[in-house]
């Protein structure tokens, strides 16, 4: 009887229960919430690999000039297919990614229309909900330029080859 009174009060610290969940993923093009695909200027430099369970975008450039800044305009397209406004930026925690080659940052990503770096959360750009621009800013699609800057004396091709992954962060914008 005493035990029933304690548990009958409705107070508890935690509950753990197993439930079945059915989750599915989709490729980047078409029905993904945010799609990544080669941009209009990607001829021969951006490829996709669907051998894995998800699509992988590959930057395929092996003959870059040393001591030069090379820009690939409109190399990557990002499309917001969701019904919500989102912010987009590149995670800046990977060594070598950013817009300051004096710090060893040799790979940068820039919003095509503004030519501003989108590396780091402070540089996030906004993509409007699927269907176009709601406030005169970005539309639901943006093309990204890829910039490789090897002009600084302290960097070379090894700085670039050490980068194996780039993390794109997409966050819903509270309205």
Describe this structure in words.
There is one protein chain. This protein has helices at 2-7, 157-161, and strands spanning 34-38, 46-49, 56-59, 69-80, 86-90, 107-111, 116-117, 125-127, 141-149, 168-172. The chain is mainly beta and 175 residues long. A hairpin with a 4-residue loop joins strand 6 and strand 7. It is globular. The termini are far apart.
Question: How much helicity do the residues have?
Answer: under 10%
Whole-number mean pLDDT: 76
The Rg value, from CA coordinates, equals 22 Å
Number of strands: 10
For the biggest β-sheet, the strand order reads: 1-4-9-6-7
- What class do helices, strands and sheet pairing give? mainly beta
Main beta-sheet annotation: 5 strands, antiparallel
Provide the succession of SSEs: HEEEEEEEEEHE
Question: Short summary of the structure?
Answer:
With 175 residues, this protein is mainly beta.
State the main characteristics.
175 residues, mainly beta, 5-stranded antiparallel sheet, 3-stranded antiparallel sheet, 2 helices, 6% helix, 31% strand, globular, disordered N terminus
Topology:
Elements: H1 2-7, E1 34-38, E2 46-49, E3 56-59, E4 69-80, E5 86-90, E6 107-111, E7 116-117, E8 125-127, E9 141-149, H2 157-161, E10 168-172
Antiparallel strand pairs: 1-4, 2-3, 4-9, 5-8, 5-10, 6-7, 6-9
